[in-house]
Amino acid sequence: MISLIGFSSLCLSTFFSILFLIPNSIxxxxxxxxxxxxxxxxxxxxxxxxSLITAYITSDFSNFNVxxxxxxxxxxxxxxxxxxxxxxxxxxxxxxxxxIYGFLYSLMSKxxxxxxxxVLKIQSSIFLIFAFFIIFTSNxxxxxxxxxxxxxxxxxxxxxPALAIHPPMLxxxxxxxxxxxxxxxxxLLSKNDDKNWLIETKRWSMxxxxxxxxxxxxxxxxxxxxxxxxxxxxWDPVENISLMPWIVGLALVHSLIMTRGEQAIERWIIFLxxxxxxxxxxxxxxxxxGILTSVHSFASDASRGLFxxxxxxxxxxxxxxxxxxxxxxxxxxxxLLLINKxxxxxxxxxxxIIAMLTILLGTxxxxxxxxxxxxxxxxxxxxxxxxxxxxxxxxxxxxxxxxVLSWQSNKIKKFRVYVVFFLFLSFLALIHSYFTVFNxxxxxxxxxxxxxxxASIISIILRFKFLISLNYIKSINSFIAHIGVGxxxxxxxxxxxxxxxxxxxxxxxxxxxxxxNILKLENIKVVENKNYQSLMAIFSLRKKGELIDYILPGxxxxxxxKMITTEAGIYxxxxxxxxxxxxxxxxxxxxxxxxxxxLVSFIWIGVCIMIFSGFIAIFKK
Amino acid sequence: MRKIIKFVPLILxxxxxxxxxxxxxxxxxxxxxxxxxxxxxxxxFSTSSLYNKNIKLSSDNLxxxxxxxxxxxxxxxxxxxxxxxxxxxxxxxxxxxRAEHHLFFEIKEDYPNVFLLGISHKDSPADSxxxxxxxGNPYSFVGLDQNGKIALEFGVFGxxxxxxxxxxxxxxxxxxxxxxxxxxxxEISVFF
Lengths: 621, 192
Prior knowledge:
The structure holds two protein chains of two kinds. Chain A is of the alpha+beta class. Chain A folds into three domains: 1-154; 160-412, no CATH class; 501-601, no CATH class. Chain A has helices spanning 2-21, 24-27, 31-57, 64-69, 76-82, 87-108, 113-137, 161-189, 196-226, 237-257, 266-288, 302-326, 341-373, 381-401, 415-435, 440-462, 470-475, 477-497, 600-618, and strands at 500-506, 511-514, 517-528, 533-543, 546-551, 554-558, 563-567, 569-572, 576-586, 589-598. In chain A, a hairpin with a 4-residue loop joins strand 6 (554-558) and strand 7. Chain B has helices at residues 2-28, 59-63, 95-110, 125-135, 149-154, 181-188, and strands at 46-48, 56-58, 65-69, 73-77, 84-90, 114-121, 141-145, 161-165, 171-176. In chain B, strands 7-6-5-8-9 form a five-stranded mixed sheet. Chain B has a two-stranded antiparallel ribbon with strand order 1-2. Chains A and B meet through helix 11, helix 12, helix 13, strand 7 and strand 9 of A and helix 1, helix 3 and helix 4 of B.
């Protein structure tokens, strides 16, 4: 019954968006009335998605999708998360978000009615394409042909709080770019020269970028403690795919700053908007069609792959064609010869695009090679580390001073202060690397990360006003974001270069001494949980005889799907993480791996700061 | 010149989509050329265990029935049960290998009489050990192939690659790339 409601509201919603798309000249209806169609469609698709969630909550196994992906024993939160933990449900979520973004836009936009309708029409067309995709190839409301009392369970590796909200966050980011895309295309098609769309693009791209950042960070944090590989970024294809729109989004957000300097490079902004959304769809295509191997295993199907490829081709092709035909003619003469903000931003944009192309090449290279030579290869971390990082380095260097540069003139305010501090910092970094093991990347990361932080702090201090108000925070927002990036660079550098790894075979009661941290394996026990059994090792961490904390690495066994997942035990400290994974047992000794990851917390703190300043920037005029 | 630059994104799009399209069609193509080795005798090779260099295993061992006990002994038994050998080339640096790794535990559980031979390809023994510690070791025997010679004999293109060999030492199945549940159910389980 609930599936029927879901499917019929999905179809009705599609019907209303078709109605909305019919040109106004045929029916001659009021524009306000026209908007109603769009809003109806949004409400209906929300009903459709909530009925899928209801089916999951009530464990309605007459729905084939629920039967395949849920189990009545599962905790409530994972039942709900199950709704988007599979292909069909997640595409429905994607579809609802397209509509919701349009809905919010229609409420909040202060643009002229004509422009607004144009944006919503493009948004609605994207909605239609995906709606047909759902109805014809991946319907989540199919009826189960057999009578069953129990479902087949959700992939246990996905039963995790961080992962329950990871896909919606990521999708909010991806789909948000659809609105940015619509805005860009609509501005190409519009006849009058209203610049309001730039302000709107700025706001919506900031929102999407912030959500995307949060989504990627959540996924990465999940990989850190759940996969038990001791790292948090693996250059896995799916990770790369989410990174590409993120980088382009970052470039977009930065180019939009230039509207403040009244040197808007509209053509470039529109191009980036198109690129952002098409990379988002490309990501969906590569993941959903299963033509790339990664830890994200979804059921894949060639016909679906073809369909999404078609969507990708149509949307991007349409965008680029409109861009070719209607691209703005007005030329802005940018003053790029000087050391000013505009040229810094242009260089930053170019670097980001190069980085994106490098990642794109590495990600699809295996596909190209397989088509051409019938050989299967895999491109891994070493390629990305040695190609992407050098591209980003000059960008980081630029980043530290860019906010201080002026828009028009060639001067840097308080030039000397920066130079003195930079020299001082390089000296410190040199001493640091002299006393520890010298490593080029470590040295560069240390110097760049701390320089970005220091330069931003100097700038904040130089602008300091005694009154701390929201406006003040808004004015130093870019520096705050850059401090976040600096912290992240420090975290990345230290956790990857100075990571220490130990492997031990120990039995219960034994102690290990690592840098004066005494780890004792107290006990190993088996705990029965609602839908899984967990084997847990209890380590006590002592320092100078004092008990600091217990670390609990373990393994979970999910009887429904017969899968074992590793649960890393992590002791978080501001300066280092002690990360333990439990291996196999042999003759009552356990194989354990211990990683000392220095400064990992900096990465998460840095990301949180970036997200925070992203939210601040949304409200910035 | 400017005009050409304008078209670059569009051309790139078409090229990339073309490749994807070819890839999808190509995957579905039944005339996907079978390996030249299929239904031929497996190449002769000899390898030593990852865990103990003194324990050797050669291709002759596989033809007869190899009795397995975890990574320590390889003995030949005389019973005439049908036994198959599954050879999987893996390495710690290969992400698809990690992704397919858990499937071998399922094979091991579902078909206990299959001898799972893992060959660590162009990988340092320390890294392979670390990898198997992290992911678990489903293999009955882990052989070393540090210089890639065995893989060359088998015509391995890239990792991972999986072969199935029957009792007479003939290669009866070959799969390039990551195994999936579907492949195991549809193509591999028919042998066992």
